[in-house]
Design brief:
4-stranded antiparallel β-sheet; 111 residues; 29% strand; alpha+beta; 4 helices; Alpha-Beta Plaits
Length: 111
């Protein structure tokens, strides 16, 4: 299965609700991921632009997108970001393919 980094930023209303009623959102969200055929390997609360981060495995990009859509549609997050992750082996395969594809950058005018 493919790995994804999932990041979400909560709305102030969501924070308000969680402060009144603390809850393990990662545990709850894991159930939705599992229902889609994926797994959450780890999850954290975080500082900065995003409030929570998950490392998850999903069967494919469409399934990862479906999870992101469901979270975004729920209204508790003001921002959602899903990043596909490549293993070192997949990255090296991509490098080999890139080197062999024949792409050439645009050239400037001749001097």
């Amino acid at each position: 299965m493919a790995h994804y980094l999932f990041q979400a930023a909560y709305t102030s209303e969501a924070w308000h609700n969680m402060l009144k009623n603390p809850q393990d959102r990662i545990g709850l969200v894991s159930k939705a991921v599992e229902k889609l055929g994926g797994t959450v390997e780890a999850g954290w609360l975080s500082f900065g632009d995003y409030d929570t981060v998950l490392l998850m495995q999903m069967p494919d990009d469409a399934t990862a997108a479906a999870f992101a859509m469901a979270v975004a549609a729920g209204g508790a997050c003001k921002a959602v970001k899903t990043t596909p992750l490549l293993s070192v082996e997949e990255g090296m395969e991509a490098e080999r393919k890139a080197a062999a594809c024949g792409y050439a950058p645009p050239k400037g005018p001749k001097k």
